[in-house]
Specification:
The complex is a heterodimer of chains A (114) and B (111). Chain A is mainly β. Chain A has strands at 9-13, 18-23, 31-38, 45-50, 55-56, 61-64, 70-75, 84-92, 108-113. In chain A, a hairpin with a 5-residue loop joins β6 and β7 (70-75). The radius of gyration of chain A is 14 Å and the shape is globular. In chain A, 32% of the residues are buried. Chain B has 111 residues and is mostly beta strands. Chain B is 0% helix and 50% strand. Chain B contains no helices and eleven strands. In chain B, strands 2, 4, 5, 6, 9, 10 and 11 form a seven-stranded mixed sheet that branches. Chain B has a four-stranded antiparallel sheet with strand order 1-3-8-7, with no helix packed on it. In chain B, β4 (31-37) and β5 form a beta hairpin. The radius of gyration of chain B is 13 Å and the shape is globular. The relative contact order of chain B is 0.33. Chain A binds chain B through residues 34, 36, 41-49, 87, 93, 95-97, 99-107, and chain B through 4, 31-33, 35, 41-45, 48-50, 54, 56, 58-59, 88, 90, 92, 94, 96-105.
Amino acid sequence: DAKTTQPPSMDCAEGRAANLPCNHSTISGNEYVYWYRQIHSQGPQYIIHGLKNNETNEMASLIITEDRKSSTLILPHATLRDTAVYYCIVRLSLNTGTASKLTFGTGTRLQVTL
Amino acid sequence: NAGVTQTPKFQVLKTGQSMTLQCAQDMNHEYMSWYRQDPGMGLRLIHYSVGAGITDQGEVPNGYNVSRSTTEDFPLRLLSAAPSQTSVYFCASRSDGGGYTFGSGTRLTVV
């Protein structure tokens, strides 16, 4: 799986958009970009994933650059409850043994403040 | 409620003891995994399974065994607990093409 690089920490004011970047310059054509977050002491929570096109769901939007070497997770209106560590993960989508692996890095610690 | 259930939530073991961490999911997911998370660090994969009867090693498998006799259950066994296994353990499952659902974790201390 491709390695990802994220800033270790970010701050965001409540009500503003939080834009979390991720670099994955070695991504291959059949690898998806996944985002998870982990709120203190809880299990990680799936947010969103995508391959090429931008994706949006009730939690966030995912913007993937045309060359797929980087992406940005957008929380449109951050709240205090969005304070968490956010993980960007790249992995295969195939139904093989390796497809079940998630390789977590150290993520970005997002602090939402009043 | 549907999801991934882990038991126990907390456990203290003495060095050399063995125990089994339980994980069950009711979503009919084929893929299940065990991770450990040490303080201030990301999650590391211990073992995973792509279906009943099929398991494989992850990044840090030493000292742990798994089995997958049913789709629903994926227990993790500590054979002889060591202080280095003090950690938070997370079980997760997913369906084809979907994101993982994680359990709430088991906090294990080995003294």
